[in-house]
Amino acid sequence: MAGYGLLDPLETLRGMSRNLDVPVGALARYVLARWASGGSGGLLEVGPVMVPRLWEPVAAAEEADSDEERLPAYHQLRQMIAWLKVPLDDPTVYPPQRD
């Protein structure tokens, strides 16, 4: 966080304001609202069923409180995320939809 303190966000917002013809205050409000709601937006995208499924291996490993359990949990979680990424990495895995 300290590194971002060296930047002046108003410089960017002023440039965007000029280019988009939108007031700086409106842009600042939009940016802050997007940032503040990012967690709930992510939950909506992943879904209320998938989040607990992804959390299960982590919770089990943390309850065991051992690195020997954490490594297999990491691999399980990695495999689950890799499965979710398949259509993003290769859009041809699903046949084209008919109109």
Commentary on this structure:
- The protein is an all-alpha fold and 99 residues long.
- It has two domains: 9-42, no CATH class; 47-92.
- Helices cover 73% and strands 0% of the residues.
- The chain is built from five helices and no strands.
- The radius of gyration is 21 Å and the shape is extended.
- The model has no long low-confidence stretch (mean pLDDT 91).
Concise overview:
With 99 residues, the protein is an all-alpha fold.
As an assembly, this protein is: single chain
Secondary structural class: mainly alpha
Mean pLDDT: 91
What is the radius of gyration?
Answer: 21 Å
Number of spatially distinct domains: 2
Strand portion, in percent?
under 5%
Q: Biggest sheet, in brief? A: none
Low-pLDDT parts are none
Q: How many individual β-strands?
A: 0
Distance between the termini: 49 Å
Helical segment count: 5
Helical proportion, percent range = over 70%
H/E series: HHHHH
Shape: extended
Describe the SSE topology.
Layout lengths: L8 H12 L3 H13 L1 H9 L3 H15 L2 H23 L10
For this entry, give a set of tags.
0% strand; 99 residues; 2 domains; 5 helices; extended
